[in-house]
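Co-fold these.
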Amino acid sequence: MNRTIPVVINDRESETRTPARPLIIIPAEARDPFSAIPAFPSVGPLECDLTRIAPGRPQAAGDVIVIRGRILDADLRPVRHALMEVWNANTYGRYSHSGDASSQAPLDPHFYGFGRVLTDDHGFYTLRTIKPGAYMARSDIGWWRPPHVHFSILGSGVRLVTQMYFPNESLNTQDYIHMVIPELERSRVIAQVHDEHSFRFDIIVRGRDQTPLESTV
Amino acid sequence: MNNSDPPFTPEGTLGPFYPGVFALSGLPNNLSEIAPILAHRPAGQPIRISGRFIDANRCGVPSLIVEIWQANAYGRYRHRLDQSARMLDPQFDGFARIRTNDDGSYSFSTIKPGAHPLRDGSAVMRAPHLRFTIFASGIDRLVTQIFFDDETLNSTDPVLNCIEDPSVRDRLIARRVGQGEYAIDIVMRGEGETPFFDDWAR
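Predicted complex below.
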């Protein structure tokens, strides 16, 4: 079955940018990986902390949370040394991004808002951030985005961009971006509560690096 | 998709607030220069690819991220799965990440990738091509491959030719517009829509 990428209703960018035609399936014998990240940047040990703009500076407003999890590939092997890029809104629901200038929510001068981390030898990662606030995505139709954290994972033969949501947020089921995910899969992007200030978010990346470019024997 | 699939994490959009510092630094954004201070240059023909990403309203798509991956001039990928005898090039990694401008335009320099057999010992040849992985606000990850209009291997390339309609196939072929200069626009949706591939299929 040829897959068509679903359009997020009421998202004008999704409506005008999502291909209308079904994706083309490459015959199995000609399938190769589409991406690889051959050279890795060095990631500093403090880059996984989004809660301060620099070491020794005051902590951002809001609830400090720790997100920990493990990245596995399609064969459930750990994805080691993959680069994770993470970004989220501040406690008021505003991004430290010049493109979010129309937001009514205040900036937090102490919130960095984006960070990076490499997964360890067993595929684990740990991040520290501020629990993001909800924000209005479209005021004309009253569309609120629930609190969420953006993740981009690349390297070690995997590539995934996704958003992590929090449990028990009533806005989740009113969010067009969350609701475009098939119902049975929605729980996979909702973090599990570990304790009051920490969450667990495991990621299984669909394999796209299974076919050798060259047979090795 | 079947019942034995593990619970894969669904993909989602990059959203409008992907940090510019990630897009523009941290990973290479120039294929031709690993160490710009050195006099060494990658082997092969230097080329430049330019064009625009266009939406259904024929407007440019700004701040769109393209991750480009390609073989070197000898047709070798810097990848653990490419165990061929073709040479690696110490000056060429074959990966870069770029971002479109406010008008949806993009441009990057690289070297023309080499052709290579589909597999070791295979008689089937892959035509020189670039692999694009595309992210933007409003879309999930998209992948496609870009070919060159001055390559005779296009007519037998097994990926290009799994597109049945030749006029649709042409939308993946960059036009030579000058010495070492190629142009191709990517239409995300609507008339002249660029074909994209499914890399979930196993």
